[in-house]
Amino acid sequence: MNPATLFAVVLLSVTAVFPSAAAQQSVSIPAGFRLEGDAVQGGLMIGYAPWSDKVTLDDRPIPISGGYFLLGFDRDAGPSSRLVVHKKRMRPADVRRFPFVMSLEVEKRDYDIQRIDGLPRRKVTPHPEDLIRIRAEGRLMRDARSGKALRLGFLSGFVWPARGRISGVYGSQRILNGEPRRPHFGVDIAAPTGTPVRAPADGRVTLVHPGMFFNGKSIVMDHGLGLTTVYIHLSDALVQPGQLVKQGDVIGKVGATGRATGPHLHWGARVRNIEIDPALLVEGMPQPLNGP
User: pTM for the whole thing?
Assistant: First the structure.
């Protein structure tokens, strides 16, 4: 998502939010309000309301900083969501226009079924002692992805963290060694071991783990306002917790650690507790490059 696109316009066309002409005619968009992105399952929208300090989506409070806010839609979201944007320092003339309310129709998606065979049995059905480790690692990951910072790193826009063949997509139902498992929340990029992994956007590293049971060597980054990204199955991590990185910085290397049948990068994204599709943050995959 290119920030130049986000801020090149003064006002978002209402047709991107309201599909019906009747709805378009019934809504008056306040000056300065912007909304970029698509209301789609797994999608992210970036909003800007410089006159607001309170936003809710379906009655849930949304963090806002400097007028910016993020809306995430999960894999099975829909069919619609209600966005309410309040105005600070209300005047008598504002009473009829605020709070500003929008109904977002969420586009439904179809998801693939992905079958993966040849995994070690223990990586599909862990032993009881493994479950203790898995739960502890899950807590570490949740803490690292809590995303409470008010920074605006996401305004750098996003690029692919690695180049290669897309071997797994967001939302697909996983069948592992013939057994149904939870959907796949991320994008898998198949590439040779040692391929550089770069920061797709500005952010701060919140976790570097040497080797989780499922995820292997892992990195988590916080891009602000609840938006975090993860990079797992790495062969090496080249950053430290707390480190600030810029888009394009090398943060690690592709590997096959954890539960993996071959070298690849799993790239995941979350807005607060909502898993979104990282592929919707970027343009199409460029041709793979050799070397760093």
Answer: 0.84
